[in-house]
Amino acid sequence: MKRVYLDHNATTAVEPEVLEAMLPYFSQEYGNAASIHTAGQNARAAVEKAREQVALLLGARPEEVVFTSGGTESDNQAIWGAVGAAASDRACHIITTTIEHEAVLDACKALEQQGVAVTYLAVSPVGIVDPEAVRRAIQPETVLVSVMTANNELGTVQPIREISRAASERNICFHTDAVQAAGKIPLDVKALRVDLLSISGHKLYGPKGIGATYIRSGTCLRPLLYGGHHQRGYRPGTENVPGSVGLGKAAELARKSLERDRARVEALRDRLEQGLLACVPAARVNGAGAPRTPNTSNLTFAGLEGEALVIALDLKGLACSTGAACSSGAVEPSHVLRAMGLSVEEARASIRLSLGRHTTEEDVTAALEIVPAAVEQLRKLSPTWQQGTGR
Q: Is 47:57 a contact under the CB 8 Å cutoff?
């Protein structure tokens, strides 16, 4: 049975070119990038090349890129770092949204326990934040605004430039979680006017365990970790040379193929959505009508449980998810879908299909056979569906 993988928002396969670039730094070129001998300087050169590659993807300067262990650390580095730099003796206030990734929401909740005030902005029924709501939420104590570029469950793309303008008008630091945007849509930190931005390697065909934070020159940020002067003191610790090289190569590939991949994947995503809506009764696309990343589709199939559908699809050879991989196994329905106004039942009846660079027409054809069959099978067993429709 040929398997169909439609869970690219959870993780992507490492590209062969990325793996090839990384391999020497596990064995032949194993020097510590902080050492001054030849082996160390070879490693240093590789890390700095990777920094340049990531900077080119983001429209940044290489010295503004700090490597981390992934998106979660990058989000925490930005949020805790910005608050820590501003805190001293003053009260602090953060503005974020109700649909952020847990890496942002949980960091904000932890800061609330330490006395930091947080405003969680609501979103529209299609999952978009109003920039004017950001302006209205700003207080004299506001030190940070954090709004994700693209949502991990819906793919909805926020009006980042307008939101960042609202922050910069009041000289407030602005952070965006761009983990699900990097490599899918164009990013230019200067045009977007962001101060801090987070990305993760394994979301754009790089390795797991590596990410990066863009830190605009002049931005005050307290280190999250202590123990050395690596990476301008922002992120001490022995640098992950193979991981950095892998992220750099993945960023280079993404930059070169972004527009081509974007158009092709979006066409496949649209074909998949249209096909499912045409042949599955009581199905809808969440976030439809809003700007979205080209690969992401979140659908509600009334009358069933999303978790059961994911399992049924997996047994038929199709991999997808009910939402964020970090929330897998959670009892509560998606906080993102609930924030958009979906009922508990609707949120639990939803799944996420996320396509990738190597998704084919044949994969979509297979999905258009597998998904409707699985939905029909589960609905026959669903008392909710039978009672609600009279079927």
A: no
